[in-house]
Design brief:
143 residues; 6 helices; rod-shaped
Length: 143
């Protein structure tokens, strides 16, 4: 499952969250993916489980890396906007619209930073699901 080809939009937080939701599909379906990766007794000779597991692992690693990169990129972009707005706010302290924009961007920045924590939980859950399975060679020997 490859990452979506569209670029991450850091302007609209709802769009940013939707992109992450779509990109997290592989993690949401990890149990299914693992179940379909390990062959049943009737398919042991027909499927290279080792190669299939490597491909799943690679897909998972790519998904985790690309999501982290997108999140950190948006955090950096939004941090830059917040910094600029703070500088403008120091010069025009009576500008209510500027204050509202600054608070909006600060809130968005905090939400994006919290996505890093969500990402850590999602990644940990996926890796734990894989660890719950016996090693593939042991599994194949028992089939």
């Amino acid at each position: 499952m490859a990452a979506p080809s569209r670029a991450a939009s850091c302007e609209d937080f709802a769009e940013f969250q939707e992109l992450l939701r779509v990109m997290r599909t592989i993690d949401d379906r990890i149990v299914h993916e693992l179940n379909t990766t390990i062959p049943t007794a009737s398919f042991v000779g027909k499927i290279d489980a080792s190669q299939t597991c490597k491909e799943l692992y690679q897909s998972l690693m790519e998904a985790h890396t690309s999501r982290e990169k997108i999140i950190k990129n948006c955090i950096a972009q939004t941090s830059s906007v917040v910094k600029t707005l703070r500088e403008e706010r120091e010069k025009a302290q009576d500008d209510v619209a500027l204050l509202k924009q600054l608070r909006k961007e600060q809130t968005k920045l905090k939400l994006m930073q919290s996505e890093l924590n969500v990402e850590e939980v999602v990644n940990d859950r996926s890796w734990k699901q894989q660890q719950n399975l016996p090693p593939i060679n042991q599994k194949l020997q028992h089939l």
